[in-house]
Amino acid sequence: MRLRTRLFLAAFGIAGISLLLAAALVAWLLERQLLDRIATDLLAEARLVADLVARNGASPTVAELDREADSLGSSLGARVTIIEPGGRVVGDTAEDGPSLAAMENHGARPEIALARAAGVGVTRRYSTTVERDLLYAAVRVDHPGVAFVRLALPLTAVDDQITSVQRGTAGGLLLALAGALVLAWVTSAAMSRRVSTIAAVAQRYAAGDLTPQIGPYGDDEIGTVARALDASVQELGRRLAELSRNRRLTDAILASMTEGVLVVDARGRVKMANDSVRRLLQIERTPVDRHYVELIRHPEVAKQIGRALEAGGSSQTEITLSTEPVRVCLASAAPYTEQDEPGVVIVLHDVSDYRRAVQIRQDFVANVSHELRTPLTAIRGAVDALTDETDAAGRQRFLDIVARHTLRMERLVTDLLRLARLDAGQEVLRLDSCAIASVFSSVAAELAPVLQTKRLRVESHVQPGAERLVVDQVKMHDVIKNLVENAAHYAPERSAIEIEAANDDVGTVVLRVSDRGPGIPDTDLARVFERFYRVEHSRARNPGGTGLGLAIVKHLVNLHDGTVEAAHRPGGGSVLTIALPKRAAFSAKAEAADKVSA
Ligand code: ADP
Fold first, then answer.
1. pLDDT digits (tens, 9 = 90+) for 212-222
2. Structure pTM?
3. Ligand 1 centroid to residue 405 C-alpha, Å
4. What residue spans define the domains of the chain?
5. In angstroms, what CA-CA distances link 222 with 1, 9, 188, 205, 356?
6. What architecture is domain 3-162?
7. Pocket test for ligand 1, best of 415, 528, 553, 578 (most atoms within 8 A of CB)
8. I need a surface site. Which of 138, 152, 420, 435 has the fewest CB within 10 A?
9. What is the CB < 6 Å shell around ligand 1?
């Protein structure tokens, strides 16, 4: 049953029952009042009649009394009965002559008995004489011949009056019921409309739409309840929004962290794993709600989680992950409590790069020391020998050794300083359009003495489309010079060194330096660009080499966003290839400015 129907039935039911009760009460009261008034009036009239009768002479005849009864009866519109002290009826409006004489003794009539005892008597009963319901009022008469006067009123008139009162009440009741019906309908409609509005808002909230919906709730208790619930929902909505904002923020922080974060609950189930931890621990499946033992293949990590879950407390260990390449992580475990259940948060900090950097620095220092020690030892030996040497030619020989090793040291220090500058980003790229052929020829001219010693030819080829390059000319000169110098060291006498510039369709320009020397062994091809790395047999061929030339080349090429690699030359020898991105000449200056500001 709908709320509106229920409200209507309840309101109308209450109103109907109340109205019915009220109408019945009113009808009953009116009837009582009417009867009381009629009885009072009848009694008053009876007293009046008694007074009039008492004024008669001492012994009036029956005929006189009967006449008086008739005339009083007709003027009062009631039956008047005059009764002797013995109870015989001596006058009656309804009876005359013989029938009056034949009338029963009335001394025992209830109203007469009451009047005898109390002076007045009022009763309502059926009259056998007139055969209808009558209201009787009897009073005592202060007269020697007459004892009582009785007035009787037929109740039909009273009943008519009561019926009209009842009809009036019923009419009023029907009107009131109709009014109650309309009122109940209107009230229940208004009430159910308000409740429906509140229900609609509640449904919208339940569906997740928490936008404020302040409706016409009204000022009564329902309105107060609705507003209170509305305010609670809004507060709840605000908290939910704040929670989800915090959640998104936490997710964003965790996702952007380079450290791996893993959360495991007391039962060992993974509650959260960010991208970094999944990458570090190579977790491919969805980790949430799985047991960590199932997911983590690295025994050291699993062991640390197990320990942290058992013992609680914080711990930090260095863990080596047997991945490819091997990674070293600092794993910190810290306890956390969620709903009184302890769990563990593991944070993996990848320190591989740091460790590698430390290692590189240590190796570098060791290499520098070693590289400096060799010429220093040679110089010291030569200086010692020089002091004892008396022969001019011998002294010159030692002086030559000192000069050569000093030069080597100087070259080493120069290369080291250049690498340091490149590492610190102090070398600025000054890009400009330049003719590559002029770079090749200036390198050849600069190295002419070295080349001539071994009678080496430099053959340069510039393919169409590669004539002009947007590069830092000075740095590119150093790169080519370094490669040609290396080639000159390793190329056999009277051979050719080829320098080539080729245009590549995929947006790169390729520069190649090839020689017909011994080439670089396969295992060393990738490593010759490392600092101080030298192929074992090369030391004899190029004793003055520092092992830093190709490292500087790589740095300078990378500065141009290019790559460099070493390979075998078909037919013997080595070929070093530089690939540079093609740059438009017009943007060169702007780009150079960008690089400087970066
Ligand atoms: P270095 O000063 O010793 O030449 P580089 O860094 O220039 O140092 O070269 C590193 C190593 O690479 C050299 O020691 C040499 O073994 C090898 N290498 C470089 N260029 C050539 C080449 N053209 N032919 C053979 N080996 C080469």
1. 766 677 788 88
2. 0.56
3. 19
4. 3-162, 215-256, 259-349, 355-423, 432-597
5. 21, 20, 14, 18, 73
6. 2-Layer Sandwich (3.30)
7. 528
8. 420
9. 486-487, 490, 515, 517-520, 528, 533-535, 538, 542, 545-551, 574
